[in-house]
């Protein structure tokens, strides 16, 4: 599977399993952090065809590695020292370009850093580059990027999922140790499932949205994409918590997630029969979900079917609300203050219309038009208002299930990674691929995708657990346990 | 319900977008398909349900209203497609003829 590597340290790094071992090997002089960075840079070069990175920060990553190496040896390094990360092209990093996968921001240079970037840098993470994604996070296949589609490293004819497709592939293909993505309706969890890695969407309000290019503000959350639950816990611990720049960000204290990963006891878990009986569910995904249920029952947990009558309504509700919010959020791209301006503009109105029409891709324009429609006079109540009411029903029913159960277990996706170009003809077919991820997004609660199996055609498969509001500590500890008990036993 | 080209033109104007005439037919088809899909929500009785608007339980946080310079004029202008060092520049708005 791996090509020849000249860099011997790279080989050691390639077995990257935990940050702790990297830190101790650096301390013992077995690894130089700069060489570790060079190994990843070489790997990114070798895997260029995946199109995972939009831009690589080679020189500054090496400079930073030298500084952090000293800190590790001196014993004054931060929690993320030794971690080499990529960030989705939707997360602002001061003095670095950020494009949101769009022509309209092709040459935009960020004038400030997002809170999450400030926090990971303060803990000595190294950011190795920015990662390809669907334009303004609108998509589930990474085929809507101005910088071209991303390929799944398990099979280059398949999509990596989206919208954080580049971020998931980068972890899958060992182009970095972990990534920060964003999840609006599954954009961290679904690509994580397609790429065989861990993807966590935190509770709405757990992580600051300051400096995250907005798609749908009542849904968007930054989430880690990692090889292990331990790294997801550590990253969440660093990025979560109150921020003066985001009034929707919770003041609730942040637990030391990485220290609370030991799990004991028995849990009550609900699974939703509607998800297992839904049309188009891949038989292998059905089998791994059922096997996980069986395995957990054998381990002494109480796992029972609980009806969720709104499954057929989650995707339409999600798209009405997110299209409405995006039509409003994307009004700021006007060709005047920043971003692309059409050369064909002759007056103010044509500056707006031509810049936006030439700068945005087709899916983004379609969502802006539909969002404008569902918010317009005469249609607001029938679409937007209706969806806000159904959102309450979905949230209340989900909360009710979680009052009596610790977690909800369901597939992450209806099928494994699909072919590039396979679903681009019909937007509704593409939207239905989100059916299992949007419930947690509508309810604003945490959910995680765990890589539990590989399909017969060698594609990664994931299962998903939804946890209680601000119950990330319990969700992460249980996830680590689930990966241990299902190891190589499922399928 | 079905929307027509006139509705699309009206939405496009409100959203300050131009619709490419070559793409009008496929856009109309896709938008109608998506709207029909969304109309599924009409199956649910929501007459006694309040809309869910805020996803967080956080209350408003007050602070002193102090002047802070977080973005310098130079930074604010640096990504502008056209600027003269002080102002953003746009195409002529009033034609003096």
Automatic annotation (TrEMBL), chain B:
SUPFAM superfamilies: Glu-tRNAGln amidotransferase C subunit. Its EC number is 6.3.5.-. Gene3D superfamilies: Glu-tRNAGln amidotransferase C subunit, N-terminal domain (1.10.20.60). InterPro entries: Asp/Glu-ADT_sf_sub_c, GatC. Keywords: ATP-binding, Ligase, Nucleotide-binding, Protein biosynthesis. It catalyses: L-glutamyl-tRNA(Gln) + L-glutamine + ATP + H2O = L-glutaminyl-tRNA(Gln) + L-glutamate + ADP + phosphate + H(+); L-aspartyl-tRNA(Asn) + L-glutamine + ATP + H2O = L-asparaginyl-tRNA(Asn) + L-glutamate + ADP + phosphate + 2 H(+). NCBIfam families: gatC. Belongs to the GatC family. Allows the formation of correctly charged Asn-tRNA(Asn) or Gln-tRNA(Gln) through the transamidation of misacylated Asp-tRNA(Asn) or Glu-tRNA(Gln) in organisms which lack either or both of asparaginyl-tRNA or glutaminyl-tRNA synthetases. The reaction takes place in the presence of glutamine and ATP through an activated phospho-Asp-tRNA(Asn) or phospho-Glu-tRNA(Gln). Heterotrimer of A, B and C subunits. This is Aspartyl/glutamyl-tRNA(Asn/Gln) amidotransferase subunit C. It comes from Paradesertivirga mongoliensis. The gene is gatC.
């Amino acid at each position: 599977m791996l090509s020849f590597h000249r860099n011997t340290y790279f080989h050691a790094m390639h077995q990257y399993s935990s940050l702790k071992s990297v830190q101790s090997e650096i301390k013992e002089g077995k690894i130089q952090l700069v060489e570790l960075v060079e190994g990843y840079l070489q790997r990114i070069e070798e895997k260029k065809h995946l199109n995972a990175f939009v831009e690589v920060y080679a020189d500054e990553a090496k400079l930073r590695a030298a500084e952090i190496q000293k800190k590790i040896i001196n014993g004054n390094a931060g929690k993320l020292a030794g971690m080499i990360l990529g960030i989705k092209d939707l997360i602002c990093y001061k003095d670095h370009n950020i494009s949101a996968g769009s022509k309209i921001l092709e040459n935009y240079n960020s004038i400030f850093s997002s809170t999450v970037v400030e926090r990971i840098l303060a803990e000595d993470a190294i950011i190795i580059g920015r990662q390809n994604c669907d334009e303004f996070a609108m998509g589930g296949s990474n085929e809507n990027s101005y910088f071209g589609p991303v390929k799944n490293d398990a099979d280059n004819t398949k999509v990596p999922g989206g919208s954080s497709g580049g971020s998931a592939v980068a972890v899958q293909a060992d182009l970095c140790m972990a990534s920060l993505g964003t999840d609006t309706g599954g954009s961290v969890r679904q690509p994580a499932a397609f790429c065989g890695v861990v993807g966590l969407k935190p509770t709405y309000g757990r992580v600051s949205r300051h400096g995250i290019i907005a798609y749908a503000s009542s849904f968007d959350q930054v989430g880690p994409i990692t090889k292990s639950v331990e790294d997801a816990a550590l990253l969440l611990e660093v990025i979560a918590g109150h921020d003066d720049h985001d009034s929707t960000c919770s003041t609730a204290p942040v637990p030391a997630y990485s220290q609370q990963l030991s799990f004991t006891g028995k849990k009550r878990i609900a699974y939703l029969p509607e998800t297992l009986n839904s049309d188009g569910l891949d038989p292998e995904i059905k089998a791994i979900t059922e096997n996980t249920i069986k395995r957990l029952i054998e381990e002494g947990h109480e796992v029972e079917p609980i009806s969720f009558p709104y499954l057929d309504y989650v995707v339409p509700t999600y798209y009405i609300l997110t299209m409405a919010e995006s039509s409003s959020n994307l009004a700021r791209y006007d060709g005047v203050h920043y971003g692309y301006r059409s050369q064909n503009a002759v007056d103010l109105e044509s500056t707006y219309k031509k810049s936006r029409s030439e700068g945005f891709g087709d899916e983004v324009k379609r969502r802006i038009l539909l969002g404008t429609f569902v918010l317009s006079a005469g249609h607001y109540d029938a679409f937007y208002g209706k969806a806000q009411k159904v959102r309450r029903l979905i949230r209340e029913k989900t909360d009710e299930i979680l009052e009596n159960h610790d977690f909800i277990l369901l597939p992450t996706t209806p099928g494994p990674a699909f072919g590039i170009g396979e679903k681009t003809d019909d937007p509704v077919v593409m939207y239905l691929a989100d059916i299992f991820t949007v419930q947690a997004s509508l309810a604003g609660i945490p959910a995680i995708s765990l890589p539990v199996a590989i399909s017969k055609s060698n594609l990664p498969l994931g299962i998903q657990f939804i946890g209680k509001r601000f119950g990330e500590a319990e969700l992460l500890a249980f996830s680590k346990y689930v990966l241990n008990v299902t190891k190589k036993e499922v399928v | 319900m079905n929307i027509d080209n006139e509705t699309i033109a009206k939405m496009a104007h409100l959203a300050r977008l131009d619709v490419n005439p070559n793409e009008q037919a496929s856009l109309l088809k896709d938008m109608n398909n998506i709207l029909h899909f969304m109309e599924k929500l009409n199956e649910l009785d929501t007459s006694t349900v309040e809309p869910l608007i805020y996803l967080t339980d956080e209350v408003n946080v007050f602070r002193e209203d102090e002047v802070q310079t977080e973005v310098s004029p130079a930074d604010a202008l640096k990504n502008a497609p056209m600027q003269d060092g002080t102002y953003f520049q746009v195409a002529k708005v009033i034609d003096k003829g």
